[in-house]
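Figure 3 (text version): structure tokens given as input.
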């Protein structure tokens, strides 16, 4: 059975010892995660409790957030000379930022 399924089935908050046994880590590690807010935990005095469903949700969200985007693999760049598909400053036209120290030429009527 997966750890996420076990966490979701727990109706009562887990103790540090229970979560450490489930994840096969030391209790100090779970306490450090709770102190650093790496896992959702409830602290009542000196007692730390962890909601299994909230922890499972957090793990799933981190998996999705850390998953690499597939878009770059679906449309790879064409092979060939990089100069052919590299954007140059000249391609920006009027949108190109003005370089400092370069004065603009005035036309005959004085407009920029």
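Below: residues designed for each position.
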């Amino acid at each position: 059975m997966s750890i996420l399924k076990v966490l979701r089935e727990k109706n009562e908050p887990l103790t540090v010892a229970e979560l450490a046994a489930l994840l096969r880590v030391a209790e100090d590690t779970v306490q450090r995660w709770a102190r650093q807010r790496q896992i959702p935990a409830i602290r009542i005095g000196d007692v730390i409790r962890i909601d299994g469903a909230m922890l499972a949700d957090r793990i799933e969200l981190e998996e999705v957030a850390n998953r690499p985007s597939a878009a770059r693999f679906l449309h790879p760049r064409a092979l060939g000379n990089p100069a052919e598909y590299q954007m140059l400053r000249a391609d920006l036209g009027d949108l190109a930022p003005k370089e400092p120290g370069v004065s603009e030429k005035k036309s005959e009527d004085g407009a920029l």
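The mean pLDDT is 80.
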